[in-house]
Amino acid sequence: MGLVKIDEALHEQIRAASAVMCRSINAQAEFWMKIGRLAEANPTLSFNDIVRQQLAAAGENGDDDRDDDDSRLVA
Predict the structure, then answer these.
(1) 10 — alpha (psi -120 to 50), left (phi > 0) or beta?
(2) What are the Cα distances from residue 4, in Å, to 11, 13, 23, 62?
(3) Which pTM value belongs to this model?
(4) For 36-70, how does the pLDDT look when each residue is reduced to its tens digit (9 = 90+)?
(5) Which residues contact 50 (CB under 8 A, 6 or more apart)?
(6) What total number of domains does the chain contain?
(7) Pfam families, alphabetically (predicted)?
(8) 2: left (phi over 0), alpha (psi -120 to 50) or beta
(9) Rounded CA separation 7/43 (Å)
(10) 68 in a domain, yes or no?
């Protein structure tokens, strides 16, 4: 595990979001970094598309009628 230095204002935004989302500050930062990385690699997908596809990949949504071509994210 490494340390990442971030701007104090961003840290406060993470702290606020983590409280609302019931995540630790680290978990919230990791979530934003993962979603940001996936969004950069898949610029045509919305946030909701990315989250839905991550849930499907984890076997959490049980939706079997999704288009397989749409279900793959570039990592």
Answers:
(1) alpha
(2) 11, 15, 18, 36
(3) 0.73
(4) 999 999 999 999 999 999 999 999 655 555 555 55
(5) 35, 38, 39, 42, 73
(6) 1
(7) ParD_like
(8) beta
(9) 25
(10) no
